[in-house]
């Protein structure tokens, strides 16, 4: 299904998103638009619905009601196979722990989404090396996650999120396991790389200073958008 009113509008939209766990509302009817290339910080207290919003928009979780549109196409009605394909091709992910495969090298971790999407190994590895170089990891392509610092491992995760040129990157507390300086450097690298590729970025964070540095902040409280702040 294609939204007839969509032309050059938001890359990703949620309308009336509701998600419940038992009797508890994680999301209580949220509307949100994400513009192409936009960087948004999602903030709020623990349990407010931040991560649920991220996971629903990304198709990791199904909303109980509401609509999700990706460039004019309604995606919340897709089956699991199609949503999984979207997560491999249109979305990128950076998590707090990086979630790298410990047995794979840095370049193999970065190449993995492209390989899963059916790309050739040669092309996937070449793209992985290019992104690792852009993120300051040239010469460390053959290292495994255990041989990298925390900041380096997160840069590998960023490269993995970007290598297939997604439309939207979802980052859940990407600096939460890093010290302040490394976290800021890692976040700067993520935003710069995303901007260069044209990807929008949604970042869930408890870091107030990080949120205030982002172009746009969306505050969630009790499953609802409480305020919209612009830098």
UniProtKB/TrEMBL annotation:
CC per GO annotation: plasma membrane
InterPro entries in the cross-refs: AAA+_ATPase, ABC_transporter-like_ATP-bd, ABC_transporter-like_CS, ABC_transpr_LolD-like, MacB-like_ATP-bd, P-loop_NTPase
Molecular function (Gene Ontology), one example: transmembrane transporter activity
Organism whose genome encodes this protein: Amycolatopsis dendrobii
Protein name: ABC transporter ATP-binding protein
Protein's UniProt keywords contain ATP-binding: yes
A Pfam match: ABC_tran
Residue span(s) of domain ABC transporter: 12-229
Membrane-spanning segments: none
Coiled-coil zones: none
SMART domains in the record: AAA (SM00382)
Keyword Secreted: no
Keywords assigned by UniProt, alphabetized: ATP-binding, Nucleotide-binding, Transport
């Amino acid at each position: 299904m294609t939204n007839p009113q969509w032309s050059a509008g938001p890359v990703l939209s949620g309308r009336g998103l509701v998600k419940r766990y038992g009797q508890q509302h994680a999301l209580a009817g949220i509307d949100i638009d994400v513009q192409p290339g936009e960087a948004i910080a999602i903030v709020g207290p623990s349990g407010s619905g931040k991560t649920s919003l991220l996971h629903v928009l990304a198709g990791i979780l199904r909303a109980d009601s509401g609509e999700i549109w990706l460039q004019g196409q309604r995606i919340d009605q897709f089956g699991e196979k199609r949503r999984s394909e979207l997560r491999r091709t249109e979305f990128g992910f950076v998590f707090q722990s990086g979630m790298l495969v410990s047995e794979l090298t840095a370049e193999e971790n970065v190449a993995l989404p492209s390989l899963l999407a059916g790309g050739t190994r040669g092309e996937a590895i070449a793209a992985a090396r290019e992104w690792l170089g852009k993120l300051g990891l040239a010469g460390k392509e053959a290292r495994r996650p255990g041989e990298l610092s925390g900041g380096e491992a997160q840069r590998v995760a960023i490269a993995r999120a970007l290598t297939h040129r997604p439309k939207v990157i979802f980052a859940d507390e990407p600096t939460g396991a890093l010290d302040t300086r490394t976290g800021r450097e890692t976040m700067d690298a993520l935003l710069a790389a995303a901007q260069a590729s044209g990807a929008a970025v949604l970042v869930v964070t408890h870091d107030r200073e990080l949120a205030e540095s982002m172009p746009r902040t969306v505050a969630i409280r009790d499953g609802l958008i409480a305020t919209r702040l612009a830098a």
